[in-house]
Amino acid sequence: VTTAKSLDGDPLATIHQVAGLDGRVHLDIVATSSIFDVCINEQRTAIHRALGKSGDRLFLFAADGEVTVESLQIRRLL
After folding, report:
1. CA-to-CA distance for 61 and 9, rounded, in angstroms?
2. Which of 4, 29, 39, 46 is buried deepest, with most CB atoms within 10 A?
3. Buried-exposed string 9-44: b where 16+ CB fall within 10 A, e elsewhere
4. Whole-angstrom distance, CA of residue 28 vs CA of residue 31
5. What is the pLDDT of residues 31-68, one digit of tens each?
6. Helices then strands (H, E): number in the chain?
7. Model-level pTM?
8. Residue 23: how many CA atoms within 13 Å on its side-chain side?
9. Which of 70, 66, 63, 65 is nearest to 27 (CA)?
10. Are 42 and 29 a contacting pair, CB within 8 Å?
């Protein structure tokens, strides 16, 4: 079970039976003012609607694990 949580600890999204998280993982993340969409290894997707929330920063973290970021690209949506 993979669960994403907000900064205050509330669960945002849960995905069951996600294989391959113990190795190299490719994430595509699309964030708008109200939608946060994460595609994991081009196989699974978690989408969260964040109405009334906004910010100017993106934080990436791993709960109960270790992560090495090899490549990060941030682009504005057209």
Report:
1. 13
2. 46
3. eeeeeeeeeeeeeeeeeeeeeeeeeeebebebeeeb
4. 10
5. 887 888 888 888 888 887 877 777 778 777 777 778 88
6. 0, 5
7. 0.65
8. 3
9. 70
10. no
